Input
Amino acid sequence: MAKKPPKVRIQFSITPELMKVFDELSDLTGAARSSFPAELLESNLPMFRELVKVMKIAHSRPAEASESLADMLTATLLTAGQLRMDLENDRAKKKSKALRKKRS
Output
């Protein structure tokens, strides 16, 4: 089996409102609270790479940057929408499973 690359720990501050959302997601899914920010960041790695590319263009060729930024924002919205649907689907599956278990 291929060995996964080691993960690097990072620390950052978030608002209490965002923390509450992660707490609720954790309660609903049973997943660790810290898994959500990590998963969101990892799933958006292509967007972050594109952002770096756009920022480099903005520094060297500002006129081209706005078109690249618009493309990146469109891709980001699509990714966010897919992630939202995935999370809602997971939550619905767990809720359905709990209801079936309760009926048994």
In short: The two ends are 39 Å apart (CA to CA).
